[in-house]
């Protein structure tokens, strides 16, 4: 096989792509990965949106802003007093940038260790499993592979009347790179990105207004969880307007003037910065050449079956550019699964047990069905819940907000869903995912010994509560 022919070519070096490439190489397949992302230095920056302007940098800023919020709002209960606390935004953003560089560099090192050929540029699938690579300078070359894995990811949706300018009107990348705390920040969209980045700048002193078109807050989450989260966000001063549809965003000088239809009629709002976070779309622009046989659906996603196969011999697609939730960890597992299928091994991803997490304060996490979904599907169910306010560790941490809720089948007791709002929900949900993957029942979860004192006791007692036998609350 020549240097330009590979067993596997991965188009895209984001979460799904680099996992696919590394696993394929581990399995002894000659592997190449094409990615167009570059850092501030103009060099390749593997890791896609997740590592460069998504999961990792947003968590870095969330942690920094949480430290500042606790310092100014909560440390007094511990007997810790401060005076004239301040935040240096440039230092905070600089820390974030160092973390990003560390992890993108880490992926490059893993590619080198696994002997993966890395190409900088944009990949375009041609017929007969050939891929054209367009380098940043416009130069082109063609490589071929026995198998192609499409992992081109997603990109922010841009509103026609609020186009990104990178300064006043920004996407998630822009909101991660402000050089100062905006006095007034507008956020369009009360989804994961809007709530997380809105929280970052609110904690640092911005007056934040979130405008959400849907009438219900976090409709994708369990209603009880959404209700509790909304109450906690209101306490923090995060203003969320529901049933509000933006119609105009005009930059005037250093301000952005917004017009939107709210529940009480037309409204205006003036902000210093506007974050548009109304969702993401599959990034498949210019991906397919003529005669590839690969299809896109009405949303621009690559059409695949349950095994991420496109229906074209040797061509697969994974991650944000295919059906299913746009979550990095979903992409991780799809990339690995496809690499293993190519190598003749078993590979599968259960889309029903993928956890969701929103890294606000308190955190929100869930897996499986909500009560509303059980009702819609006519599934008989029972529930149990337990508040963090009754968990010794949570109270000792001064984080008593929220609860754990377990939904089980009314007849078989099999766990159908778990929903958490509260401290460390992102970590606690993993236990619930494992239980569901092993077809566990609420009783199984209830009979597992949990360490005391820990936050995980809330999961334990919620499972016990399903059968009205929780110890530390009235049943």
From TrEMBL:
It comes from the Bacteria. Disulfide bonds join 50-55. Its cofactor is FAD. Its main location: cytoplasm. Binds 1 FAD per subunit. GO terms for cellular component: cytoplasm. It is an enzyme of class 1 (oxidoreductase). One of its GO terms (molecular function) is dihydrolipoyl dehydrogenase (NADH) activity. It catalyses: N(6)-[(R)-dihydrolipoyl]-L-lysyl-[protein] + NAD(+) = N(6)-[(R)-lipoyl]-L-lysyl-[protein] + NADH + H(+). Residues 6-335 form the FAD/NAD(P)-binding domain. Residues 354-463 form the Pyridine nucleotide-disulphide oxidoreductase dimerisation domain. It is found in: Cytoplasm. FAD binds at residues 59, 123, 152-154, 320, 326-329. Pfam families: Pyr_redox_2 (PF07992), Pyr_redox_dim (PF02852). Its EC number is 1.8.1.4. Keywords: Cytoplasm, Disulfide bond, FAD, Flavoprotein, NAD, Nucleotide-binding, Oxidoreductase, Redox-active center. NAD(+) binds at residues 189-196, 212, 279. GO terms for biological process: 2-oxoglutarate metabolic process. The active site is at residue 452. NCBIfam families: lipoamide_DH. Belongs to the class-I pyridine nucleotide-disulfide oxidoreductase family. The active site is a redox-active disulfide bond. This is Dihydrolipoyl dehydrogenase.
